[in-house]
Amino acid sequence: MRKLIAIASLCLLPAIPALADGNAEAGATVFKKCAVCHAVGDGAKNKVGPELNGIVGRKVAAAPGFNYSAAFKAKAAEGWSWDESHLSEYLANPKVYIKGTKMAFAGLKKPEEIADIIAYLKTFPGP
């Protein structure tokens, strides 16, 4: 039985990279959940959370003028950058992925929403 479950799980793996592509238009809708605390686009400024222009590929805790938690500063000291893998894990469960984060959001539970929001964020290059 365990072998059958393991084999069935492996069959699902090829679908995961397809989700990484995401849909930026759908991501714009998902981002409405984030917009209370985060901004993107021309003139974006830090709010309760940092502005997210250029977040994909940006070093962790690097938005100018934002006061990051000690947990984020520690990740920055370790050399973390926001690649798709870190973003996916963080967006799924922020408080578990980076213990000590100040972000109150519980996370996105649907993998397609995570892929969509990452695709959307990619449309906003950094400075």
Describe the biggest sheet?
none
| Beta-strand percentage range | under 5%
- Counting helices, strands and paired strands, the structural category is mainly alpha
What is the number of E strands?
A: 0
* Elements, N to C (H/E): HHHHHHH
Which value, in Å, is the CA radius of gyration? Answer: 16 Å
Q: Can you give the mean pLDDT?
A: 87
The poorly predicted ranges are 1-19
3D shape: globular
Tally of helical runs: 7
- Overall helicity: 40-55%
N- and C-termini, Cα separation? 53 Å
Describe the fold and architecture.
This protein is an all-alpha fold and 127 residues long. It contains seven helices and no strands. The radius of gyration is 16 Å and the shape is globular. It starts with a helix and ends in a 6-residue tail after the last helix. The N terminus is likely disordered.
